[in-house]
Design a protein that fits this description.
By secondary structure, the protein is mostly beta strands. It has nine helices and 47 strands. 9% of the residues lie in helices and 47% in strands. The chain is globular and about 105 Å long.
């Protein structure tokens, strides 16, 4: 009996010592308004590997924490991050009590920039694109400014477009094989359903993929991780749409192991900010999870977001001066309603099945199966043996007459002979009817019916001279992805993954409206004989609505990728190493035997393949719990996109000569400081993009040398740039300071210099001189002098200063002023080749083509800087136990007019034509510009049930 007393005494004594020696902290996370516990909140000790996720009751416990001062970071999607200083004493467990998290209402900010990214600027020979959609999940003050304040001016982080990022949903890469970019419209309008996001900037490590040099964004739609409840949202705005409604319900995990999320939304407008831009979008989302024991779970996700939007035109300065910056030449009245000729439609449902396998406490193995099918279509007007329907066509504008020159006098330019009378008449005619004339198109397609007296009694359909067609891409994509993450030891973590993607797309021209006519000829009216035929296997077809014509081909693509990544975490330093391998293959299959390329258009092309490797690494040196220095570096090769692999895929199987993989290198260094009052980051970066390929199409006058045997010096050409290098260097600054408990100020700055780093090779394909013997009429124009020209379509410098007041009674207001500068126009490479100086009539250089004048003509246009003032605010209430809130923003309060991008027209392709056009004072082929939004608003009302 005495031995039993001794044993019990020893057990209780030892337990007491253990309890006294426990060192750490514990607490509970709750919602600041409802006071309900929040599960699945990430709680971590900053600049350490210590991390936990709260349980169903919102509780967490950290034991074995080293004594001293630490910072506790609390993070959960939909809430504002919280950072708390804490002093840990050896042998004590600190009770943090209830930690309240506030809703992050900025997530409700409607980012009109999303639609800018999805606009087809490349269709207009401009590569301008914003990367703002990649930044929605970030909390960094700099990246918030880039997304919400600078995005409206098409700011691109580090001067890189989204082709250099990796966008993922449930571990599956969503970047399109065709152009390497995500198509945001495929999941638009699902803001509430897609809030569970992780973002890494630059080449920082991602648990899901090797990634691009811009960054990686992963969206997780696993049903069990959503906060249970229902959210209903209604919004109004005057940007690309006017109204938005959305409802989302998450069930949470049931006792039987089921969880589901459903979401539906709609966005619509009869007319958006720019004239004639109607909009209609529907969004549907379902995620269903079944838990299979303690180790396995299956999750089925599907979303379908059919959307339609009308486009707005880029305009010359002449057109804008005669109208206004919101003018859009793509629409006109038909039967009293506005109708836009250029519309984009996306209908591509997505299905994903994910298997989550918890192998053990240290290893997780997730596998995804992905399938997508659908159509993307872009409409425009086609015409034969008729005048251009474009109301801004150059021959209809005053500048056509006011910039006239007499014919050349031998080797010398003719005299300046403006026709001011006809210029005034043209101006009056344009102002009287500045829009697309649908009625005249219908009348041109019909024959009048006359009575016995010769009076018109009606009209009957005839052969259409004008039709509306769509460039359609019907794509089918399947992918399998697997990813393993494992804690190999206390300090070493491993990520490994592999994926295989297979894509087939049919690309064709589809007639959608005969515009009152009875049929349309499937020919190219610019050519004669066999060359005019779209398909020699079915010549002289008369087509109707729904028929394919013009071009019809398939693309095939296979992409295999694999990566491994090892992360090492220690007290003072973390570092990682990652590597990637990819194999990519492309092929074209022509379904038409084109009359221009009768020996090189029908059937399958050669298979073109690329094998690529990538390596990256980085380290974080922890100066203290508040300070860290971060270094990242990467070097990788990358397959050219499918779009840039075939020189003219619509017509033939020709592969770009000597095409090779691109090479991308990047390095960045950051100093990060985070305390409860001050959060700061300073980053310097350098990126080199080498050996890129870029293809564009345009009509050029005076481009070919008549002395070499070409009767026509004008041509519609395909331009290919190869061996193109770019250099991006710059710095980022992010500051956030809590002046008081209710007032916070922020400052962000981006200072970059993004230039072309060499003189790329330029080749042109002239379809007009193709023959059965010469099925690749490619002309080498040498090198374009692009080195040190600025990359276009984005501000290279941006600054933002903001102030926010957040009241304890759950209302807040903030304002920020933004200054954006160093935005440049997209230059024409062909104007910077040696052919620019050559007279096509003689083959000799123009006598007036001096270096001084050429430098003036070819100087890259720099846009005026712009200052944008934005005001944002919100308020939330608890009404009958329900959380109700309103959020509102006004962007560009001062209603500033500014250019966001533009491009030089390449129609005038030699020195004399450009010199005459500009010297006239009213250029007929001046640059075309895109304009940003003026004053816009967004109001959002939500209720959480």
């Amino acid at each position: 009996m005495r031995k039993l007393y001794y044993l019990l005494f020893f057990i209780f004594f030892w337990s007491g010592i253990q309890a006294q020696e426990s060192t750490g902290f514990f607490g509970k996370i709750i919602d600041s308004k409802t006071q309900n516990p929040i599960p699945f909140v990430v709680v971590s000790v900053q600049n350490t590997s210590l991390m936990q996720v709260t349980d169903k009751e919102g509780k967490f416990v950290f034991e074995g924490v080293s004594s001293g001062a630490i910072l506790v970071l609390v993070h959960s999607q939909g809430y504002k991050d919280a950072l708390y200083p804490l002093e840990i004493t050896a042998g004590k467990m600190v009770d943090l009590g209830n930690i309240s998290l506030q809703d992050d209402q900025s997530l409700d900010l409607q980012s009109s920039i999303i639609t800018l990214m999805d606009s087809d600027f490349n269709d207009e020979n401009s590569s301008s694109e914003s990367t703002s959609g990649l930044l929605q999940s970030s909390r960094d003050a700099f990246l918030q400014a880039a997304a919400f304040n600078w995005g409206q001016a098409r700011f691109r982080v580090r001067g890189l477009d989204s082709e250099h990022s990796t966008m993922m949903i449930n571990g599956v890469t969503m970047n399109k094989v065709y152009d390497g970019r995500p198509q945001w419209g495929e999941w638009g309008g699902l803001n509430d359903a897609l809030r569970n996001q992780e973002f890494t900037l630059g080449t920082a490590p991602s648990d899901y993929t090797f990634g691009g040099i811009l960054g990686t964004q992963e969206i997780n739609t696993r049903a069990s991780i959503y906060r249970p409840g229902t959210r209903i949202t209604f919004s109004g705005t005057n940007t690309n749409y006017n109204w938005r409604s959305m409802a989302t319900h998450a069930s949470g995990m049931s006792k039987k192991g089921w969880a589901y999320v459903v979401s539906a939304g709609k966005r619509w407008a009869q007319e958006g900010y720019f004239e004639g831009t109607n909009y209609d979008s529907n969004s549907f989302f379902v995620s269903l999870e079944k838990k299979l024991g303690s180790q396995h779970a299956l999750n089925l996700t599907t979303f379908y977001t059919p959307n339609f939007r009308a486009k707005n035109s880029p305009n010359t300065a002449e057109v804008t001066q005669l109208t206004n910056p919101r003018y859009n030449s793509y629409w006109g009245f038909q039967d009293g309603k506005k109708r836009n000729a250029r519309e984009k439609t996306i209908e591509e449902p997505i299905f994903m099945l994910n298997h989550y396998f918890k192998v053990n406490d240290k290893t997780n193995w997730n596998t995804s199966v992905f399938y997508q099918i659908g159509t993307t279509a872009n409409s425009t007007i086609d015409y034969q043996n008729a005048n251009s329907p474009d109301p801004t066509y150059y021959r209809k504008m005053p500048s056509y007459y006011s910039s006239l020159y007499a014919p050349d006098q031998g080797e010398f330019s003719g005299a300046f002979t403006p026709d001011l009378e006809n210029a005034d008449k043209s101006k009056a005619a344009f102002l009287a009817n500045p829009q697309l004339d649908w009625r005249s198109l219908y009348l041109a397609n019909q024959t009048p019916i006359l009575d016995g007296n010769g009076n018109i009694t009606g009209y009957e359909p005839a052969r259409s001279k004008y039709v509306l067609y769509e460039d359609q891409v019907q794509a089918e994509t399947g992918a399998v992805t697997t990813n393993v993450s494992s804690s190999l030891s206390e300090n070493i973590f491993m990520n490994a993954g592999a994926s295989f993607k297979k894509m087939k797309s049919n690309n064709s021209q589809v007639l959608v409206d005969l515009l009152g006519g009875s049929y349309f000829d499937d020919i190219d009216a610019f050519y004669d004989g066999n060359q005019s035929q779209s398909d020699l296997n079915n010549p002289n077809r008369q087509i109707g609505v729904g028929d394919k014509y013009g071009y019809n081909f398939n693309f095939f693509a296979n992409v295999l990728e694999a990566f491994t990544q090892f992360k090492f975490s220690y007290n003072k330093i973390d570092f990682y190493l990652a590597q990637q391998f990819s194999s990519t293959s492309y092929q074209r299959e022509g379904l038409y035997k084109n009359g221009i390329y009768e020996t090189n258009s029908f059937g399958k092309s050669d298979n073109v393949s690329f094998e690529n490797f990538g390596f990256k690494g980085g380290l974080s040196f922890k100066i203290s719990g508040k300070q860290v220095i971060v270094l990242n570096a990467a070097h990788a090769t990358k397959a050219p996109t499918l779009r840039n692999t075939f020189a003219n895929a619509r017509l033939n199987n020709t592969i770009v000569n000597d095409i090779e993989s691109e090479t991308n290198s990047s390095i960045d260094a950051s100093y990060v400081y985070r305390s409860p009052k001050l959060k700061a980051r300073v980053t310097a970066y350098f990126s080199k993009l080498s050996n890129a390929t870029q293809i564009s199409f345009f009509y050029a006058e005076g481009i070919f040398d008549d002395g070499a045997g070409f009767l026509n010096t004008d041509a519609f050409v395909s331009q290919t740039l190869t061996q193109l290098n770019k250099k991006n260097i710059g710095a980022e600054l992010s500051l956030e300071y809590q002046l008081t408990q209710t007032i916070k100020t922020t400052f962000a700055a981006a200072v970059g210099q993004y230039t072309f780093d060499n003189d790329p090779k330029v080749t042109l394909t002239n379809d007009a001189v193709a023959t059965p013997e010469n099925n690749a009429p490619i002309f080498d124009f040498g090198k374009a002098s692009l080195k040190n020209y600025k990359q276009a379509g984005m501000p290279q410098r941006a600054y933002s200063l903001g102030m926010e007041y957040r009241d304890p009674k759950y209302w807040w207001i903030s304002a920020n002023v933004n200054y954006l500068t160093n935005t440049y126009i997209d230059v024409s490479p062909i104007l910077r080749t040696g052919i620019f100086y050559k007279n096509p009539a003689s083959g000799f250089n123009f006598p007036e083509a001096t270096e001084e004048r050429a430098a003036q003509l070819l100087q890259q246009e720099k846009f005026d800087p712009v200052t944008l003032l934005n005001i944002i605010g919100g308020k939330s209430w608890i009404i009958y136990g329900k959380n109700v809130g309103v959020f509102a923003s006004i962007n560009n309060v001062l209603n500033t007019t500014y250019k966001t991008g533009g491009y030089e027209q390449a129609r005038n392709a030699n020195f004399r034509q450009v010199n005459q056009d500009i010297s006239s004072g009213t250029p007929s082929f001046g640059p075309k510009y895109f304009y940003g939004y003026g004053r816009t608003y967004f109001v959002n009302l939500y209720i959480n049930l």
